Amino acid sequence: MIISTSRFGQVELKQEDVLTFPEGLLGFGDLRKFALLDDPNDEIFAWLQSCEAPQIAFPVLEPELFAPQYKATLTKSDMEALKLAAQEKARYFSIVTIPDDPTQMTANLKAPVVVNVEARTARQCVLQDNNLAIREPIFTKLQQRVVQNPAVAIKNQSSGIDVATKLNIVKEAGL
Amino acid sequence: MLVLTRKLGESIAIDDHIKIRVVQIKGKQVRLGIEAPKDTKIHREEVYVAIQEQNQQSASVPADKTRSVAKLLKP
């Protein structure tokens, strides 16, 4: 299938690339189908792209890249909504906000997007842990990551990028 | 919306397992005590509003912006 995106033009997807969000994302409750895209021209981020609204896409990062101690505790209802048998089987992605000054960019640790890879179901889970920030500054932490391992692109240092679909552009957006 | 009046120390029961008690009333502030099963999520509404705002702002980032961040990160 081919979906339209405002950032990448026409993108070709397989049926199994589509993630279903039974409840949508907070503030985007009407959108239920997304794909996680791996843009080869981007060394850091993957994109959670809506299959239904071309202009809606979120840059995401795995929290382990900037918060190695990150631990999410899912509730029973989270697990049921995700059709998840064991919490260890879930993959986590933080939605990132990049303001005009990218050094001020932040990631949402409080409400990660949790993916059940096998069932292709996902949910933005609001975690009960009050120590997790909705806007965690991450620029310096990512910079440290680059310094430690300058030869490898950041996203290749994470374990879950294989969940994402390599961006297969059919027709570039009118740039 | 169901609206109930409660005095200090009185409670409201929701379902069989959730109890909300008025613990303190001070000026314009009310302190509530909530008893609920461990698995129940309890958040101030502001948390959801802040997450919605964060999502909205995140969705407005163009692709070339994220691509350029890698260069900035290199010291």
TrEMBL record, chain A:
<keyword id="KW-0282">Flagellum</keyword>
<keyword id="KW-0143">Chaperone</keyword>
<dbReference type="GO" id="GO:0005737">
    <property type="term" value="C:cytoplasm"/>
</dbReference>
<keyword id="KW-0810">Translation regulation</keyword>
<keyword id="KW-1005">Bacterial flagellum biogenesis</keyword>
<comment type="function">
    <text>Acts as an anti-CsrA protein, binds CsrA and prevents it from repressing translation of its target genes, one of which is flagellin. Binds to flagellin and participates in the assembly of the flagellum.</text>
</comment>
<dbReference type="InterPro" id="IPR024046">
    <property type="entry name" value="Flagellar_assmbl_FliW_dom_sf"/>
</dbReference>
<keyword id="KW-0966">Cell projection</keyword>
<dbReference type="Pfam" id="PF02623">
    <property type="entry name" value="FliW"/>
</dbReference>
<dbReference type="GO" id="GO:0006417">
    <property type="term" value="P:regulation of translation"/>
</dbReference>
<keyword id="KW-0969">Cilium</keyword>
<protein>
    <recommendedName>
        <fullName>Flagellar assembly factor FliW</fullName>
    </recommendedName>
</protein>
<dbReference type="InterPro" id="IPR003775">
    <property type="entry name" value="Flagellar_assembly_factor_FliW"/>
</dbReference>
<dbReference type="GO" id="GO:0044780">
    <property type="term" value="P:bacterial-type flagellum assembly"/>
</dbReference>
<comment type="similarity">
    <text>Belongs to the FliW family.</text>
</comment>
<comment type="subunit">
    <text>Interacts with translational regulator CsrA and flagellin(s).</text>
</comment>
<keyword id="KW-0963">Cytoplasm</keyword>
TrEMBL record, chain B:
<dbReference type="GO" id="GO:0048027">
    <property type="term" value="F:mRNA 5'-UTR binding"/>
</dbReference>
<keyword id="KW-1005">Bacterial flagellum biogenesis</keyword>
<protein>
    <recommendedName>
        <fullName>Translational regulator CsrA</fullName>
    </recommendedName>
</protein>
<keyword id="KW-0963">Cytoplasm</keyword>
<dbReference type="InterPro" id="IPR003751">
    <property type="entry name" value="CsrA"/>
</dbReference>
<comment type="subunit">
    <text>Homodimer; the beta-strands of each monomer intercalate to form a hydrophobic core, while the alpha-helices form wings that extend away from the core.</text>
</comment>
<keyword id="KW-0694">RNA-binding</keyword>
<dbReference type="GO" id="GO:0044781">
    <property type="term" value="P:bacterial-type flagellum organization"/>
</dbReference>
<dbReference type="Pfam" id="PF02599">
    <property type="entry name" value="CsrA"/>
</dbReference>
<keyword id="KW-0810">Translation regulation</keyword>
<dbReference type="GO" id="GO:0045947">
    <property type="term" value="P:negative regulation of translational initiation"/>
</dbReference>
<dbReference type="GO" id="GO:1902208">
    <property type="term" value="P:regulation of bacterial-type flagellum assembly"/>
</dbReference>
<comment type="similarity">
    <text>Belongs to the CsrA/RsmA family.</text>
</comment>
<comment type="function">
    <text>A translational regulator that binds mRNA to regulate translation initiation and/or mRNA stability. Usually binds in the 5'-UTR at or near the Shine-Dalgarno sequence preventing ribosome-binding, thus repressing translation. Its main target seems to be the major flagellin gene, while its function is anatagonized by FliW.</text>
</comment>
<feature type="region of interest" description="Disordered">
    <location>
        <begin position="56"/>
        <end position="75"/>
    </location>
</feature>
<dbReference type="InterPro" id="IPR036107">
    <property type="entry name" value="CsrA_sf"/>
</dbReference>
<keyword id="KW-0678">Repressor</keyword>
<dbReference type="GO" id="GO:0005829">
    <property type="term" value="C:cytosol"/>
</dbReference>
<dbReference type="GO" id="GO:0006109">
    <property type="term" value="P:regulation of carbohydrate metabolic process"/>
</dbReference>
<dbReference type="GO" id="GO:0006402">
    <property type="term" value="P:mRNA catabolic process"/>
</dbReference>
